Amino acid sequence: MKQCCSVMTEIPPIAESGQAPDKQKKSYVKRVTVLLGFAALFAAVFSTGIQNQLSLESLRTNREALLDFVSVNYVGAVAAFMAIYILAVTFSIPGAVWLSISGGFIFSAGPATAYIVIAATLGATLVFLLARYVLGDVLRSKAGGAIDRMRSGFQEDAFSYMLVLRLVPLFPFFIVNLVPAFLNVPIRIYVVGTALGIIPGAFVFALVGSGLGAVFDAGGDVDPGAVLFRPEVIGSLLGLAALALIPVAYKRLKANSS
Predict the structure, then answer these.
(1) CA–CA separation, 199 and 204 (whole Å)
(2) Which among 10, 14, 6 is positioned nearest to 138, based on CA atoms?
(3) Fewest C-beta atoms under 10 Å: which of 74, 99, 175, 231?
(4) Which residue from 131, 205, 193, 202 is spatially nearest to 166, judged by alpha carbons?
(5) Looking at the structure, do residues 39 and 56 belong to the same domain, yes or no?
(6) Whether residue 38 is found in the same domain as residue 55
(7) pLDDT tens for each residue of the chain, 258 residues long
(8) What residues make up the domain containing 33?
(9) Closest C-alpha to 208, from 195, 224, 220, 197
(10) If you write DSSP's letter for every residue of 140-209 in order, what string do you get?
(11) How far apart, in whole angstroms, are the C-alpha atoms of residue 200 and residue 197?
């Protein structure tokens, strides 16, 4: 809640020049209305305590109830899972990685990967649109110096660089949601690059989740960080990132040879 309140106080006043006063006032009122709605949704989400439920222990405790619910209401379970995932991405709720693992446990690796990619892309796109059209001045400060560090990459080849940033966690996911909006990356490139780039990571965590039943039965534990940074996993992600950079390397070689 403190974060939302601080964001609300940072809205800049209406400028005295540029647009007509009436148009400026309408634009300002629209921004404030969206922000208030965003803040209310933020408060509603966190009041449910969902951020405290995203853990292995919670999944272990609610294992039978979750599987029973899915067996009798699969469509409802998918809709609820995707809605929670979208909110988790939009508000950068800690522990969202457990949602990916939970998805694999509940729905199996293949379907869960599809649900995760769709929901994560929608959530990331919502943040992108808010940053570009509604809360740009406020959210720009959250990106900090990452804007300058990413600028040249997006200028070289926006799509390839977007893929690399999604494949390899060089920057936090939330920052990668914001910066392209400030650097005028076309939304189609942002959406496609995000969707394709998060597929490998989503599949890895969903695959881990699909094997949780045996882990629970054996009384074991799972460390998401250890899973993602296993040599075979990080090696695969780096390989995919290298492929994504081929167009950039080709452009540079062609420019140097001409």
Answers:
(1) 9
(2) 10
(3) 231
(4) 193
(5) no
(6) no
(7) 444 444 444 444 444 444 556 666 655 565 666 555 655 655 555 555 554 555 666 777 777 888 888 899 999 999 989 988 998 888 877 667 788 888 988 898 899 999 999 999 999 999 998 888 877 776 777 777 888 888 888 888 899 889 888 887 778 888 899 899 989 899 999 999 999 989 888 888 888 888 776 666 555 555 555 545 555 455 555 665 665 566 556 456 555 655
(8) 1-6+23-47
(9) 224
(10) HHHHTTHHHHHHHHHHHHHHHHHHHHHHS-SS-HHHHHHHHHHTT--HHHHHHHHHHHTHHHHHHHHHHH
(11) 7
Return d(Cα 226, Cα 67) in angstroms, integer: 26
Q: Is residue 234, in this structure, part of any structural domain at all? A: yes
Amino acid at 241: A
Total of domains in the chain: 2
What the block records as the tokens of 41 is 């949704």
Give the DSSP letter of residue 230.
Answer: S
Q: CA dist 102 to 92, 132, 204, Å?
A: 17, 32, 12
- Dihedral in degrees, nearest 10, Cα atoms 194, 199, 204, 208: 100
In a domain? residue 159 = yes
Q: Can you read off the two tokens belonging to residue 242? A: 């290298």
Please give the single-letter amino acid code of residue 41: L
Residues 41 and 97 occupy one common structural domain:
no
Residue 220, SS3 per DSSP: coil
